[in-house]
Design brief:
mainly alpha, 102 residues, Cytochrome Bc1 Complex, Chain D, domain 2
Length: 102
């Protein structure tokens, strides 16, 4: 009985550690992308503004999430900085959604 309790506790602990905290939400990412990004990058990832990355071709997306978060927080060329506008979690949601456009 004692071994069963220890085993069950260990399994629950392992499951809680393995589960990602704050996993990205593509639906929230889509909403934020539509509001903040689509006017330049297009609703389908094909840019509507000269110089904007073409997300439908994966342009600019082949970086780590950490690097992309920094870039979005700071802004890049004509793209405004979103630090203080979007939370880090919402930026991760946008990144996850944007990668579905490829």
């Amino acid at each position: 009985m004692k071994k069963s309790i220890i085993l069950a506790t260990a399994m629950l602990l392992a499951a809680s550690i393995a589960a990602p905290a704050g996993a990205s939400d593509i639906n929230k990412g889509r909403a934020a992308y539509t509001k903040h990004c689509a006017s330049c990058h297009g609703s389908n990832g094909k840019p509507t503004m000269a110089g904007a990355a073409d997300f439908s071709r994966g342009q600019g997306l082949m970086k780590s999430d950490k690097d992309l978060v920094k870039r979005i927080e700071r802004g890049n060329r004509a793209c405004p900085a979103y630090r203080g506008i979007l939370s880090e979690q919402r930026i991760l949601d946008v990144i996850a959604y944007t990668r579905t456009l490829m």
